[in-house]
Structures are given as structure tokens and as C-alpha cells.
Specification:
Order of helices and strands of chain B: EHEHEHEEH
Number of domains of chain A: 2
CATH architecture of chain B: 3-Layer(aba) Sandwich
Largest sheet of chain A: 7 strands, mixed
CATH superfamily of the largest domain in chain A: FAD/NAD(P)-binding domain
CATH topology of the largest domain in chain A: FAD/NAD(P)-binding domain
Structural class of chain A: alpha/beta
Number of strands of chain B: 5
Largest sheet of chain B: 5 strands, mixed
Order of helices and strands of chain A: EHEHEEEEEEHEHEHEEEEEEEH
Shape of chain B: globular
Distance between the termini of chain A: 17 Å
Largest interface: A-B, 29 and 23 residues
Strand content of chain A: 25-35%
Bound molecules: flavin-adenine dinucleotide
Shape of chain A: elongated
Number of helices of chain B: 4
Oligomer: heterodimer
Number of domains of chain B: 1
Strand content of chain B: 25-35%
CATH superfamily of chain B: Glutaredoxin
CATH class of the largest domain in chain A: Alpha Beta
Structural class of chain B: alpha/beta
Radius of gyration of chain B: 12 Å
């Protein structure tokens, strides 16, 4: 078999992709895993993982490293920090091109590109990232000791992180677009009873402004349309996640309205020989355990598919 | 000490020596946190490709990291890691918070 020819190419090296790689290489399938970023996916973004059974408590970095070593030890080739520039999924032999030049072919593709934090996409957001705007309370919270900050969002992450940030900040204002929260009741009540937290509801942040660092947010009241300015030192944005499926737009793989991949009971997409797993799927619960389960099922079905051909 | 495969800058003395003895230097000053690890990871890969540049990390929480924390080029930075690029001992670019492989590569291509 030529060096660029594989049985299975897995796209994405989060827990779903690494698990798929472990199962497929262990079944003696020649397997390549490709990732545009760091091996581990969103696990790398997680300080403490306490709900992965069998491991009492660990860091995302450590769990990612262990999964990567397992995949490598079973014989997977892994390429990280590469650019996926083209895919050809429709023919019998599928192929992917990276960095515009290197082409790899396989009998089966497992799509496991996961998800990412959604940005607000308003003026000033990019400019002040790291200069007052953050997406990680555990990473950057201590820069805001005794400062006034806003937290944008109304789900579990926003409310839980707002409470966590009161350890540092003197005042935390939660800005949310609806008149109610989508978070679990206990997260809402924890936030409501915290004396440092107050709320601006039914409002959108429409712009971030400042000099060297963030100084103000412009807030639009969605009921009245009025725009006001608020002086702040920092803003933490937790407005949900979206699937990393931009690459599949205009391809034959069926997606739902939120750009999430649709699969059948065997985790096969609408294109034969292309399977999918993890947070990239249309599914309700997005966790490491569910990603690992999806990766297992997709890989086992992919192996069966290859053996049947 | 950070658990990376990069060389570490562990003191102010070593920092000064590194800048004195090398033309092109990149130092990423952070913790083992979610925004920092992807930067170290990209640096480990880029180190193989850019042999004319010295790649280092530095623990943000050691006292001597003031050499980076207090750089004028890092004023206003409130996101880890602080990543600084030097040419002949002078800062040419500094970034705050996570950067991906492509963004770092673009800076290396532009500055060195
Ligand atoms: C802050 C945070 C904390 C969390 N805490 C927990 C927790 O405590 N417990 C828990 O169970 N879950 C937790 N989760 C959720 C969990 O991390 C995810 O559900 C899980 O990582 C999804 O796995 P995945 O493999 O599907 O996708 P991901 O982990 O998102 O990995 C996908 C990979 O694909 C890569 N990729 C994307 N696009 C492309 C492309 N075009 N080409 C090639 N590669 C690509 C990405 O770089 C990434 O490495 C947390 C998530 C976050 C963000």
C-alpha cells in the first residue's frame, strides 16, 4: 500500500476522532488522523474533567495526551496543525488534501470535527480579545481582581462562569438577550443570590470600544431599541457552541439547519463510506463520554463496511 | 516548570542571555491552561521548520516572569499567554491570548 493510502482517514482529533482512531488501528486498519489544530480538541480547553468514568479527576490536557498516546501506540498516523484544503468524498476511494499539496486517500472517512465557542461577531470583539475580552474564566479571571466586568450569555456556562468570576471581580453584570435563562435552575439561583451579580435582560451587546484595552460596551435594549454605553474593565463571552462543519457546506453530506451532520443508526452520513462522530453531529448531549461512544460506533461500522466490500 | 517539550526560560539572567546570544527568539509566557497549550503545541511543530528561530516558554507565575509581564509591548494584555517575538534583543511583535498555528506562522514569516 502506498504511503499516502489508508483504510481510514479520521478528520478531527478530539475525543471522538481519537477513539475512532484507536478502534480502527487496533483492528489493523491503516489509519490517519488529521487535525487543523491541537490534538485533543475541546478537551484541551477544559481545566478539570471530573465526569469521565474511570478517571477520578484529571486535566483536559492530560486526558488528551493519554488518548493521543493510545492511538499512536496502536499504529495511527497523526497530523496536527495542518490546513485541510480539499475533500473528495463522493467517489469509491475518498481523498483529502492538506496544505494545498499533500493528498491522502482512504476507503472510509470518519468526520469528527467537533465544535467551537460561538463569537458574538460585533465590532471590537477581535481587537480586544486578550485585551479585556475573554472566553475562559479560569484562564484570565485573575486579571480582573476588583474590576467591573460583564458576562454575555444566558446558558449554564455563562451563569456558572459569572459566579466563578465573582471570586475576582468587584461587580459582574450578566447581559442576556431573552427575559429568561436557558440554564439549569440551580445555576440560575446560584447567580441570582450572589450579591456581586446583577442582570441586564433582553439586550444585545452591539460594540466593544476602548484604547489599549477594553473600556466600554454598547448595549442595545431589544424592547425599546435604545442604545446605552457601559464603562467596564472586562467582558467574558459564553454564547454557546457551533459545529465545525463549514467545510461541508455545498458538499453532498446532509446537514440540519444548524449545520450539524445527520447520520443513520450506523453513524453513516448521507454519503456512502463517510461516517461521522462527536459534537459535529446533530445530537442533544455533547460530552467527552458521548463523543467517545460515537467514535467507537462510527469506527466499528466503518470497519465492517470495509470488510464487506 | 511548564510541561512542554520546548526549552524553558527560568530566570531573568537566562532571559537576558538568550536575547543576547540569539538573533531571532520567540517566548511564550503562560500556564498549562487551555489558551496556552495550543500555542506551545504549535511552537513545538514550528520549531522543526524554523531552525533560524529559538523557541522558548516561560512560566507566567515565577517572579522573574516580570521581564515579560512588564514589557511596554504587553501593556493592556489581559489574556494568557503573552507571546513575544524578538529580533536582535528588541521586541518586534507581541500577542495576547490564544493564537493558532497559522497566525503564529504568519508572524514568523513576516518578522524573520
Ligand atoms: C470549556 C469546556 C469545558 C468542557 N468540560 C467538559 C467536561 O468537564 N466533561 C465532558 O464530558 N465534556 C466537557 N466539554 C465538552 C467536550 O469537550 C466535548 O463534547 C468533546 O470534546 C467533543 O468531542 P469531539 O471529538 O466531537 O470534538 P472536539 O473536541 O471539538 O474536537 C474536534 C477536533 O477537530 C478539529 N477540526 C475542526 N475542524 C477541522 C477540519 N476542518 N479539519 C481537521 N480538523 C478539524 C479541531 O481542531 C478539534 O481538535 C467541555 C467543553 C468545553 C468547551
Amino acid at each position: 500500500m502506498e504511503s499516502n493510502q489508508y483504510d481510514v482517514i479520521v478528520i478531527g482529533a478530539g475525543p471522538a476522532g481519537l477513539t475512532a482512531g484507536i478502534y480502527s488501528s487496533r483492528a489493523k486498519m491503516k489509519t490517519l488522523i488529521i487535525d487543523t489544530g491541537t490534538i485533543g480538541g475541546q478537551m484541551i480547553l477544559t481545566f478539570e474533567i471530573a465526569n469521565y468514568p474511570g478517571v477520578e479527576s484529571t486535566t483536559g490536557y492530560q486526558l488528551a495526551k493519554t488518548m493521543k498516546n493510545q492511538a499512536k501506540n496502536f499504529g495511527c498516523d497523526i497530523l496536527s496543525n495542518v490546513r485541510l484544503t480539499d475533500v473528495e468524498f463522493d467517489s469509491k476511494i475518498k481523498s483529502v488534501t492538506i496544505n494545498d499539496k499533500d493528498k491522502y486517500a482512504a476507503k472510509v472517512i470518519i468526520w469528527a470535527t467537533g465544535g467551537r465557542s460561538r463569537m458574538l461577531n460585533v465590532p471590537g470583539e477581535k481587537k480586544f480579545k486578550g485585551r479585556g475580552i475573554s472566553y475562559c474564566a479560569t484562564c484570565d479571571g485573575d486579571f480582573f481582581q476588583d474590576k467591573e466586568i460583564v458576562v454575555i450569555g444566558g446558558g449554564n456556562s455563562a451563569l456558572e462562569e459569572a459566579v466563578a468570576l465573582t471570586k475576582y471581580a468587584s461587580k459582574v453584570t450578566i447581559i442576556h438577550e431573552f427575559d429568561h435563562f436557558q440554564a439549569f435552575e440551580h445555576a440560575v439561583s446560584e447567580a441570582r443570590k450572589n450579591p456581586k451579580i446583577n442582570f441586564i435582560m433582553e439586550s444585545h451587546v452591539v460594540e466593544f470600544t476602548g484604547g489599549d484595552s477594553l473600556e466600554k460596551v454598547k448595549i442595545k435594549n431589544l424592547e425599546t431599541g435604545d442604545i446605552s454605553e457601559k464603562k467596564i474593565d472586562g467582558a467574558f463571552i459564553f454564547v454557546g457552541y457551533e459545529a465545525n462543519n463549514d467545510f461541508l457546506k455545498d458538499k453532498d453530506i446532509k446537514l440540519n439547519d444548524w449545520n450539524e451532520v445527520l447520520v443513520n443508526n450506523n453513524y453513516q452520513t448521507s454519503v456512502e463510506g463517510v461516517f461521522a462522530a462527536g459534537d459535529a453531529l446533530a445530537k442533544r448531549y455533547r460530552q467527552i463520554t458521548t463523543a467517545v461512544a460515537d467514535g467507537t460506533i462510527a469506527a466499528l461500522n466503518a470497519i465492517e463496511y470495509i470488510n464487506r466490500k | 516548570m511548564l510541561q512542554t517539550n520546548l526549552k524553558h526560560v527560568e530566570s531573568e539572567g537566562q532571559y537576558n542571555e538568550t536575547l543576547q546570544n540569539n538573533e531571532n527568539v520567540m517566548i511564550c509566557c503562560g500556564r498549562m491552561g487551555p489558551m496556552c497549550v495550543p500555542v506551545y503545541d504549535a511552537m513545538e511543530d514550528l520549531e522543526k521548520e524554523y531552525t533560524n528561530i529559538k523557541f522558548y516558554d516561560m512560566d507566567f507565575d515565577i517572579p522573574d516572569a516580570h521581564v515579560i509581564r512588564n514589557l511596554p509591548e504587553c501593556r493592556g494584555f489581559m489574556g494568557l499567554p503573552f507571546t513575544v517575538y524578538y529580533k536582535n534583543g528588541k521586541v518586534v511583535t507581541a500577542t495576547t491570548s490564544i493564537q493558532n498555528y497559522e497566525q503564529i506562522k504568519e508572524i514568523l514569516e513576516r518578522e524573520y
